[in-house]
Amino acid sequence: MASVLPKISRVIVSKPCRKTFSSSARHSNGYNFELSETQKEFQAVARKFTREEIIPAAPYHDRNNEYPKELIKKAWSLGLMNGHIPEYLGGLQQGVFDICLTGEELAYGCTGIFTAVDSSNLGQIPVVIAGTKDQQKKYLGRFLDEPLVAAYAVTEPGAGSDVSGIKTKAVKKGSEWVLNGQKMWITNGGVANWYFVLARTNPDPKCPAGKAFTGFIVERDFPGVTPGRKELNMGQRASDTRGITFEDVVIPQENVLLGEGAGFKIAMSTFDKTRPSVACGATGLAQRCLDEATKYSLERKTFGVPIVYHQAVAFMLADMAIGVETARLAWMKAAWEADQGIRNSLSAAIAKAHASEVANKNASDAVQVFGGAGFNSEYPVEKLMRDAKIFQIYEGTTQIQKIVISRNVLSEIENFANCTMALKTVFVILSVLCFIQAADLGKTAILKKITTILNHIPESEKNDFLRYHLNKGRELMLAQLSDNYPDFDYDLDEDDSILLYKYFATNNLVTDEEVVKKVSNIICWGNKCIDFSDPGVHP
C-alpha cells in the first residue's frame, strides 16, 4: 500500500512554509527601538523648542485660555508639524513612531499645545489613508506652504463613544451633498482650515455603522459652517476646543473620502494611527511630573534632610518612573506595529489606556510630593494635574479602550478553543492514516509528528492553516478509506472518532484485536482526552 503519511505531511506543511524568516531575522533580538541619527536630530529639535519656547509660554496660555498661534508658527517652521504628509507632495512621510517621538517632547512642555498640533494630525490622517491623489494634493499640500491646521469633527453633544448615535446627516442632491448637524468638543474647531466630518448618509436606523456613515472634507469657509465660542476647559486650555454647527452646507462629491458608506471604517482606521500619539502625549506629561517631583523632592527638606530620602517619597518616585517607562514602551510598540503594517487596534488601545492612567496617577502623585505647594497655581504640577484628565476622555475613553482590549482577549480565547478542536481533529486524521498504512505508531510518535508540523507554522497563521488543512486532511482520509474499503459507508456529519471506531472496531475489518484496540485508543485519546493546555503536550 502506498505511503499516505508523507503525502499528508507535505500537504500540511508546504503552503505556510513558503513564507519564512530571513536568517538575520531568525536570530534577531526582537523589537529594536534604538533611534536613528535622523530621529535623534528631530527629537533634539523638539526638546530644545519645548525647553526654550513652550515651557516659558505655557502658563500664559493656560491663564488666558489663549490659542498659541505664534508657537504653532514656530513649530511649523522647525518641521515639527505635518510630518506624515507624503513625499510626493514634498512632505517628510514620517511614520507614526517618528511623529510620536517628537510629540512626547512637545507634550512634556504643555499638553495643550501638543494637542493643538496632534489634533491637526488627527484631522489630516483620514485624507492620508483614504484620500485620492487629487484630494491629498489639494488638502494636504497647503499645509506645507503655510502654518495651517485641520480638525477631526466626529463627536456630537449626544454621541461621543457611541459613534452609531451620530445625528449629523448628509443628503445627496445631484452631484453634491447637503450637510446638517452639530459637532461638539472639536479641538482646533475655531482655527482649522478644514475639517474631517463624519455624517450619517443612510437614514435607515438598522443600517450597520460600517455602512451608515460617510467621511467628508469640509472647508472652514464653506457657507453654513459656524464654529461656536472657545470653551473654557479644566485643562489643556491652550488648545482651541469648540462646537461647530453645519447648516445646509453644500459639499461637492469630490470631497467624499473613499466613497459613500466608508466613513466609519476611515474613522476607526484613523484611531489605530493616532491613539499611539495620544499615548505619547500622556507619557510626556507623566515624564514631566516625575521630573518636577524629583527636582522638588531634592530641594524640599523635612527633619533635616531632603524629602527624597524618606522612603515614602522615594517609593512614589519609583512608581512614577515605572509608569513612565511602561507607558513609553506601550506607545512605541503600538506605533511600531502601525508602521510595519500590522493591525494595532489592541496595542493602540492598551497604550492609550495605560499611558492615560499613568499620566493621571503621576500628576496626582506629583501634587502629593509638592504638598500644599502642589495645590497652588504658582507651581507647575497644579496645571499638570488639570491637563492630565482629558487623556482618559478624548479619542476614546479609558472604558472604551478596555472594551476594545477585552473583546480582543475574548477573541484570542475563542480562537485558541477553535484551534484546540482543530488540532484534535488533525490528530485523529493522522492517527487514521497511520492505521491505514499499518504503521505501528503509538500516541507519542503521532504527537511528535503533529508537533513537528505545527512548529513550522507562525502563530498568527495557525487558525487559517488548521481550518484549511482540516478539510484537506478529512478529504484525504475519506479518499483512502474509500480506496481500501470500497464498501465503507460514512456520514460526514458524524464525529470522526465515533465513525472510525464504529467502522474498524465493530466490523472486525482487521483480525488482530491488539491493533484494533491500539488504534481505537489512539483515536479516542486524541479526540477527547488530550489537553492542549498542558505544557507537556502542547506543540
UniProtKB/TrEMBL annotation:
Domain Acyl-CoA dehydrogenase/oxidase N-terminal: 36-144
UniProt KW keywords: FAD, Fatty acid metabolism, Flavoprotein, Lipid metabolism, Mitochondrion, Oxidoreductase, Transit peptide
EC number(s) on file: 1.3.8.7
CC per GO annotation: cytoplasm; mitochondrial matrix; mitochondrion
Catalytic function, reaction form: a medium-chain 2,3-saturated fatty acyl-CoA + oxidized [electron-transfer flavoprotein] + H(+) = a medium-chain (2E)-enoyl-CoA + reduced [electron-transfer flavoprotein]
Acyl-CoA dehydrogenase/oxidase C-terminal domain segment(s): 261-410
GO molecular function, one term: flavin adenine dinucleotide binding
Cofactor(s) demanded: FAD
Residue ranges of domain Acyl-CoA oxidase/dehydrogenase middle in the record: 151-249
Main localization (coarse): mitochondrion
Pfam families: Acyl-CoA_dh_1, Acyl-CoA_dh_M, Acyl-CoA_dh_N
GO biological process, one term: medium-chain fatty acid catabolic process
Entry keyword annotation includes Transmembrane helix: no
Pathway the protein contributes to: Lipid metabolism; mitochondrial fatty acid beta-oxidation
InterPro entries registered for this protein in UniProt: Acyl-CoA_dehydrogenase (IPR050741), Acyl-CoA_DH_CS (IPR006089), Acyl-CoA_Oxase/DH_mid-dom (IPR006091), Acyl-CoA_Oxase/DH_mid-dom_sf (IPR046373), AcylCo_DH-like_C (IPR036250), AcylCo_DH/oxidase_C (IPR009075), AcylCoA_DH/ox_N (IPR013786), AcylCoA_DH/ox_N_sf (IPR037069)
Locations listed in the record: Mitochondrion matrix
Family designation: Belongs to the acyl-CoA dehydrogenase family.
Entry protein name: Medium-chain specific acyl-CoA dehydrogenase, mitochondrial
Species the sequence originates in: Tribolium castaneum (Red flour beetle)
Organism placement in taxonomy: Eukaryota, Metazoa, Ecdysozoa, Arthropoda, Hexapoda
